[in-house]
Design a protein that fits this description.
Layout lengths: L1 H28 L1 H11 L19 H11 L7 H6 L4 E2 L6 E3 L8 E2 L1 H18 L7 E7 L4 H10 L14 E11 L6 H20 L3 E5 L5 E6 L1
Parallel strand pairs: 2-4
Antiparallel strand pairs: 1-3, 4-5, 5-7, 6-7
Helix pairs in contact: 5-7
């Protein structure tokens, strides 16, 4: 009887060791397999919004333009000038944002502007990561403008200001009318939920004095300025 118990105990111990070392091998040699297993066990929830944060993004240009002109980069003349600046950083698409076709600006930001955009991306990603809209990205539609960009824009848009905050490196626009998602077709309700989630991220940073922000109406975008 004792011998049978010993054999059974030995069998259980062996099975445990196989599971431990087998799991270690799978984890160390096939991390993608582990990710798939973990992903299937996550209980994704519906992305919920509470209140209209976009309605609370209403800073006036007069609140920030003098500070931006004083503390931002010296405006660039043209594309060649912007590419030669050491205090501007070239941007590529991130995990949770993409860059739209840019007709009147260039994909460059100052160190402060780049840090703000990356913070918005990180906070947005954290809010949607375990939800039904986890694969979504917001779209940056305008970044740093040169004097030449501003002149061209003013010829085509009489409402454009020659004191554009976009010339000083720390300003960018994010559309709230469109989002990207490679895994599903976004509905109008999905876009609304993503819009207000992004607005909440920006609002929270605004409250921490990290930025100024405006919900633009003529062009459907969040106009964000680092501070």
């Amino acid at each position: 009887m004792r011998r049978k118990k010993f054999k059974k105990s030995k069998f259980i111990t062996g099975a445990i060791l196989i599971c431990i070392f087998g799991g270690f091998y799978l984890f160390s040699s096939k991390p993608e397999a582990i990710k798939k297993i973990v992903k299937k066990t996550i209980n994704y929830t519906k992305l919920k919004v509470s209140g209209s944060y976009s309605a609370q993004l209403k800073d006036k240009m007069s609140a920030y333009i003098n500070t931006v002109e004083r503390t931002g980069i010296t405006p660039c003349r043209d594309e060649g000038d912007i590419k030669s600046r050491r205090n501007l950083y070239k941007l590529e698409a991130g995990s949770y944002y993409s860059i739209d076709r840019l007709d009147y600006s260039h994909a460059y930001l100052s160190k402060k502007g780049k840090a703000l955009l990356e913070r918005i991306e990180a906070d947005f990603g954290e809010k949607i990561n375990t939800t039904d809209l986890r694969d979504s990205r917001f779209i940056v539609t305008s970044l740093t403008r040169t004097k030449e960009n501003v002149r061209r824009l003013r010829r085509n848009n009489g409402n454009a200001s020659d004191r554009s905050a976009h010339m000083y490196g720390g300003c960018f626009d994010i559309t709230y009318a469109r989002f990207e998602n490679d895994k599903k077709k976004l509905t109008a309700n999905d876009i609304y939920r993503l819009k207000e989630t992004l607005a909440k991220v920006i609002f929270e940073l605004k409250e921490k004095k990290k930025c100024w922000a405006i919900t633009e109406k003529r062009q459907p975008c969040f106009h964000v300025v680092a501070r």
